[in-house]
Amino acid sequence: MSRTSQHPSSFRDPAGFIFKQGDVVYRQINHEGREDFDFFLESGLYGALTKKGLVVPHKEVKNTSRFDNDDRRYKIIQPEQIPFISYPYEWSFAQLKDAALLTMRIQRLAFKHGMILKDASAYNIQFIGKKPVLIDTLSFKKYVPGEPWEGYRQFCEHFLAPLAVAHYTSYDILKILQSDIEGIPLGVACSLLPKRARFGKGLLTHLFLHSASQKRYENIASDKTVKDVPKRKVSQFALEGLMASLERAVHTLRPPRQKTEWGNYYDFTNYSNEAFKKKQKLVRDMLKKVSPVPKVVWDMGANNGEFSVLAAQMGAYTLAFDIDPVAVGRNYHHRDQKTDDLMLPLVQDCTNPSASVGWMGHERDSLFERGPADVVMALAIIHHLAIGRNLPLPRVAEFLAAVGNHVIIEFVPKEDSKVQILLASRRDIFAEYSAEHFEAAMEQYFKLVEKKPIQHSKRTLYLYKKKRIVPGNG
Amino acid sequence: MHSFFNHVGYLDPGTGSIIIQAVVGVAAGIAVFGRKMVGTVSHKARSLFRKDSRKEDIE
């Protein structure tokens, strides 16, 4: 019997938790959650949600003898596995908005089946490719008339506040979600929002008045006895109104009108159409040469996914990372039935990748803990790292070895016009930025499989295979 | 706040959040319900008008 280990992020809800055995994720339902879980299945809500693809389906594990004994256990279920766990601070505006709307849609359906979401955490939503799904089957409880919605504040802090603040200010505000994983506190959101935001649909109510009400009652325990706390019931009519109003508020929020560095990258490349096509063919050929066939590909600096899609077309689950939220949003909005389930665009700065955060520093995994990928593609980013960010080439090679077992990388020489632009306003201190030094740096960690010039350009494409396991990277 | 409900979750909903739900929910409910009513009535009116005009055409 292999050891079971409770996931470090799954400890808040006494109704159950998720754990891993080997590479498989399971969910334990505790006796504490039995009544609600059974009702979730019997009421038809589970069936309705899975039919619409809104919640991750599961199967019950009948034989539990291979798991550690646990007196709290009622059942064990095996949910459909999520290929890559992502977090709200890695999503574009549109992804966070879709996750919020999905939560409200599920809430409406739950109400029809006599249930209600007992929480509204953004971390309960995951993306399978470009499709959001709810992963927490223990998020539901029987609705008791008169009860308020306990997830209301969480919904506002995890979804509405970040979306509203980003809408009125900048995409950059979504980065706050990495340092404060419980969302943006309402008071903070209100202080960041301009006065005109009070006229935004639902924002006066759900953010400003909500925040004021919280402030009004926050010290109630110290001022009064428990008996003095106002005991309000919330009618079903009021709850339905509240939820419809919240949904409308989210629906009307749009991404900020903000130009970003890479948002229109492919409008300004220095590639001829011919060179671009040659590069596509080379990348596709190199992906085919990787053995065994890659299951997971990370495209670092994917922009709107022009090249990531090549990996997805070959059946690999492809993470299209980019530092630019506009480019990631574009990729997310671009729909293609053949690859939508296989490509997940995410905001990721590879010079400052997602760290491990939360309780004990382990609640949310770092990017490294979610790797390595079978193949990492690093196309046209080496000059931005080495020259734009002053990263020595051996450091870049070290990073690539930590995140991928194979690397398809494009070297952009100094003569290239894009490199010249980077050097135009600064002193060239990059004497070691050359193909020779690049190859030497890569060869510390990788074995060269193939090297091909990209015709009609000055650039070269390399396929490398990792030589050895980097310490600390399994 | 937990003491007066039988079914409680694991989150602290916050007293201020409950108060705002009670107060604002009703107003929001009326607004949403009102909009639905207006929508239904105007839809019915439009469909009646269409029927009438068709009748006129036939006559």
Uncertain stretches of chain B: 1-7
What's the story with the biggest beta sheet of chain B? Answer: none
* Average pLDDT rating of chain B: 71
Number of domains of chain B: 1
Anisotropy-based shape of chain B: rod-shaped
Distance between the termini of chain B: 68 Å
**Overall helicity of chain B:** over 70%
Short key terms for the protein model shown above:
heterodimer, A: 474 residues, alpha/beta, Rossmann fold, five-stranded antiparallel beta sheet, 16 helices, globular, B: 59 residues, mainly alpha, 1 helix, rod-shaped, disordered N terminus
Structural account:
The complex is a heterodimer of chains A (474) and B (59). With 474 residues, chain A is an alpha/beta fold. Chain A is built from 16 helices and 16 strands. In chain A, 35% of the residues lie in helices and 18% in strands. In chain A, helix 6 packs across helix 7. The mean pLDDT of chain A is 92. By secondary structure, chain B is an all-alpha fold. Chain B has one domain. Helices cover 75% and strands 0% of the residues of chain B. Chain B is rod-shaped. The interface between A and B is large, with 46 and 31 residues.
What is the topological layout?
The complex is a heterodimer of chains A (474) and B (59).
Chain A: E1 5-6, E2 16-21, E3 24-30, H1 34-42, H2 45-51, E4 58-60, E5 73-79, H3 93-112, E6 115-117, E7 125-128, E8 131-134, E9 140-142, H4 152-168, H5 176-179, H6 186-192, H7 203-218, H8 220-223, H9 236-252, H10 273-289, E10 296-300, H11 308-313, E11 317-322, H12 325-333, E12 343-347, E13 373-378, H13 382-388, H14 393-403, E14 404-411, H15 417-423, H16 435-442, E15 446-453, E16 460-466
Parallel strand pairs in A: 10-11, 10-13, 11-12, 13-14
Antiparallel strand pairs in A: 1-2, 2-3, 3-5, 4-5, 6-9, 7-8, 14-16, 15-16
Chain B: H1 15-58
In short:
The complex is a heterodimer of chains A (474) and B (59). Chain A is of the alpha/beta class. Chain A is 35% helix and 18% strand.
